[in-house]
Each structure stands twice: as structure tokens, then as C-alpha cells.
Amino acid sequence: MALFRGVRNREPLNSLCEYLLKTEGGYTIDETIAAYSKFVAALYEVRSDADLSGAIWDCLVSDMNPFLRHRIDSVVSPGDTTEMSTLITLTAERELDLLTEIGNHTSTEFKEQIFYDGYLPDFRSSHIDMKKRYMRMIDNIERDGYGIFAKYIMFCVKEGQVVPVKHPDPIKTDDLYCYEIPRKKVIDNTAAFIAGKPAADVLLYGDAGTGKSSTVKAVSRMFAGAGVRLVEVPKQEIRNISSVIERLSQVPMKFIIFLDDISFEADDPMIGIFKSVLEGAASGGRKNIVIYATSNRRHIVKESFADRQNEVHLTDTIAEQTSLSERFGLRILFDKPNKKDYLEIVKKLASSRGITMPEEELEAEAEKFALRGGGRTARLARQFIDSLCC
Predict the structure, then answer these.
(1) Residue 318's pLDDT is what?
(2) Which residues touch 345 (CB under 8 Å, ≥6 apart)?
């Protein structure tokens, strides 16, 4: 292996090669059995379905190699890369065929080489055509991604690193009721972003529990098949946001950087960092990235009466506090639903869950729940229906 040597050195191929060496002679039957068992154990560790072909594909899709790197560079920086050698392409095709051949083997074939009639563990193969699938991935890399971006659709930033969210919120746009107009604005902006048209950074603001965060997550999931990935950045990670954007700008996909429920004190040093990132949109510094943020505050920066006591600089103070939110090209209000909308959400959620309570009783209980919860919100409507399902 030359181009895909990284796959060769990962499990389960690493243990498989060790086992194959033991079948060449000079080793005892116990040593050969131990090597085979180690290989199958490594396969079980990485694939719960015991699929050798699938395990090799998993290694392949996450392997950063010269062949893949050139394809990424040609998409990210067209015109700046040299033409790939035909020899490298042929090498890639031959090695992919080899990986296909290896992955097509079954445990029966391997065990026959050991000449042992006792128990030996089994595994299976799904017979993946590595060359066909890999070349298809290369051709559609902007949509299907590679590595963790092919396997997962939502991520978060931890200590400056982008890590996958293995069990993301399953919310979909079909699960959201009311708020059609503000939700459509987010959908339309995201669609424009995918199409390469001008798209704005978005601030979703308003009362707590009105579905701002759910809207962002649901819309990102809606466009995942078009190559959109959501990367959530906690407030404490804003200091690393520039380096995260730099890395994501080298990935030929579309990214929504998501800051949930943010607000800043007037003297917070993170404000300056965040402002510079938002200004990057105007300069074209992040063509494949938009920022979606949610906040309970329209102006994000907290105000106090003390800020307004100094009449001499009052205008400057207000301008400074509002300047951050004004850097978002699109600001969308999510306010608390009125009684009619609240009950409409309750009834639609009840219908989707198969709850058959009489309508009058359902509405009365929903109102009581809202009263105890402090007001009508989409979140309380969902919590009320969850309580009925318990």
C-alpha cells in the first residue's frame, strides 16, 4: 500500500496482516489461532455487525491521503492546484481493488488455512466495491463529505477541536408547529447559502422556549443531504472560533456555526473576537460558513441602568451595545405564542403522539400546565405532551 497506507496500519487490517504472517509457516497452531482471534476481536471492536468489508470502508473513508487531499484542494482552491498524475490515479484504483478483494473474504476462507476443527469465531463481509464507492465519494465530496463529516451531521467544539455529536437532537422541521414565517426565513437563507447565493448570518432572538434552537437544528438536518453540517460553539469556545473557521474553510462542504443562547456583559473580552468573526462575512473570509446564533436578548450585550446615567456618552454607549447584533444580516423574532397558537401546538403534538384526550379536556389541562410553568411557550407545550405520555 502506498496511497492508502494509513488504512493498512489501522484496525482491523493491522491485526489481519499479523494473522496472515502466522499462516506462512514457522508458527505453532496455538500462535496462529491466537493471531486469528486477535484479528476478529479487533474487527468486533470497530464493527458491531462483524463486517470486514464495512470495517475496511470505515477506515478508508476517514483516511487523509494524497489522493483525497488533491481532490479537496481542487474544490477549495480551484486553479491553484497542479493536475494529478495519471500514475497516482492508477495506483489509487489498484489499491482500492486490493482492499475490495481483502474485504470480500469470509471467516470460512480464513479458518480453512488454520486446519483446526475446534471453535473459532466468525465474521461476515458485505462485499463493498471500494473503488466504485470511493470514486463516487470523491466526485460528490461537497455533498457527501469525507471522514467524520461523511459519518456525522452535527458537531461541537471542545478545547478548540471539532468533534462529532454521536447522538444529536433528532428534531426535524416536521416536528415544529406554528412560527411558519420566521422558520421560512431561516430555511430560505440556508437554501441560498447552499446554492452559493448571498446569505446572511442570522440572529434568532426572543422569549425562552419558543423554538429558536430547535429551528436551527431542524433546518440544518433538513439540508444535511445537500452537504450542510452544524458545528455548535459554546460561549467559552468563542476564543477558538477563528481557528475553527480557518480549519472548516479548508473542507469542501457547507457549515453552520451555531452559538446557542448567547449574551455578553458589556466588558466581556469575547465581544471583540465575535465582532471580528461577524465582520469576516462582509470581507468574504468564510465563503462556506454562516453563523446562526440564538439569544433571549435582541441586542445580545446586557444593558443596565448605570450605563444610561452618563448622559454625555449615552449615545455612544447605546451604539456600542447594539452594534454586535446589528452585524447579523438577518434578525428574526420568536415571541411567545398567544393562547390560540399555544393550544394549536398542543393539539398538533398530541395528534402526532396518538393522544386521544377530548379536545376541551386537553386544552384545559394544557392551560393549567402553562400557568404552573410560567407562561405559554412551544417548549412548555412539548413538555405538557411528554407528561401525558409518561
Answers:
(1) 47
(2) 177, 178, 337, 378, 381, 382
The answer to whether the CB of 233 falls within 8 A of the CB of 223 is no
CA 364/CA 362 separation, integer angstroms: 6
Residue 74 has a pLDDT of 87
CA distance 379 to 381: 5
The DSSP letter of residue 76 is H
Rounded to whole angstroms, the Cα distance separating 289 from 359 reads: 45
Q: Are strands 154-158 and 161-164 parallel, antiparallel or unpaired?
A: antiparallel
Q: Please state, in angstroms and rounded to a whole number, the distance separating the CA atoms of residues 51 and 47.
A: 6
**CA gap 127, 267 in Å, rounded:** 60
- Distance between CA atoms of 335 and 212, rounded to whole angstroms? 10
How many other β-carbons are positioned within 10 Å of the β-carbon of residue 335? 12
Q: Residue 383: what residue type?
A: Q
Mean pLDDT score of the chain, rounded to an integer?
89
- State the Cα torsion 335-388-220-210 to the nearest 10°: 10
Domain ranges of the chain: 5-139, 154-334, 339-389
Triad 256, 348, 230: Cα angle to 5°: 10
Q: Helix 66-76 to helix 86-103 angle, to the nearest 10 degrees?
A: 120
Looking at the whole model, is its pTM more than 0.70? Answer: yes
Helices (H), the chain: 5-8, 13-22, 29-46, 52-61, 66-76, 86-103, 107-112, 130-139, 141-144, 148-151, 180-194, 212-222, 241-248, 270-282, 314-326, 339-352, 359-373, 378-389
CATH match of 154-334 with 3.90.550.10 = no
Positive or negative, the CA dihedral 205, 210, 213, 218 is negative
Distance CA 168, CA 367 (A): 31
Question: So what's the pLDDT on residue 306?
Answer: 52
Residue 123's closest CA among 31, 53, 226? 53
Rounded Cα distance, 103 and 249, in Å: 34
Instruction: Tell me the pLDDT band of 13, cut-offs 50, 70 and 90.
Output: very high
Cα(329)–Cα(311) distance, rounded to whole angstroms?
30
List residues bridging with 255 in a β-sheet: 229, 289
